[in-house]
Amino acid sequence: MAERACGVGRFGAAQWWGCDGTAATAGGTPGPGGSGGEATAPAAPSASGGTTGGYHAYRNARTGTCLRANSFGNASALGSCSDDAALWSMTAVAGGFHLLNKGTADCLQAGLLNTAATGPGCSGSGAATWYAAPGGGLADRYDGNCLTVEYLGSAVVGIGTGRCDGSAAQSWQPQ
After folding, report:
1. Is residue 37 a contact partner of residue 25, using CB atoms and an 8 Å limit?
2. Which among 69, 84, 109, 164 would be 20 to 30 A from 103, CA to CA?
């Protein structure tokens, strides 16, 4: 499948992740060989503040901080939303979309043992393919887990993936 430009659409309180006028919904079957999860939706009018394509920061609903690629380009992190390390572009691919970091030019990927990292290039693997999950989540096509802020007690210890539960730790709002 050819790559398509993706972005975030907003109309009033409604919001969706989408690609070329289609919205990535919470539908579909997660994991390898999943069934997609895209449905037709109108493009957000620019007068409503809607955005499509380009780069966006993604703020976590629980921490209020943004998803970032670290300076080493080999792990994802949380922090400020104000520089290129916090900006991600979305490109549609079969079964979802890729997230490419502006600062490192690395792709967000699900890893072994429920990790989330960035790596060079966006391969066609399920680990580098994400789709919208309930509650503003991002689920990977590798095993259907959601991008999650991880805690040890009340301390944030990093970013990983885990069973999708719709919690604020898994909700990523585009900025």
Report:
1. yes
2. 164
Tell me the DSSP string of 33-96.
T----EEE-PPPPGGGT---SSEE-EEETTT--EEEE-TTSSSEEEE-SSSGGG-EEEEEETTE
**Which token pair is 52?**
């499509």
Single pTM value for the model? 0.71
Residue 37: is its pLDDT beyond 80?
no
Please give the CATH architecture assigned to the domain spanning 4-174: Trefoil (2.80)
Hey, what are 172's tokens?
């990523």
Spatial CB neighbours of 135, under 8 Å, sequence gap ≥ 6 = 166, 167, 170, 171
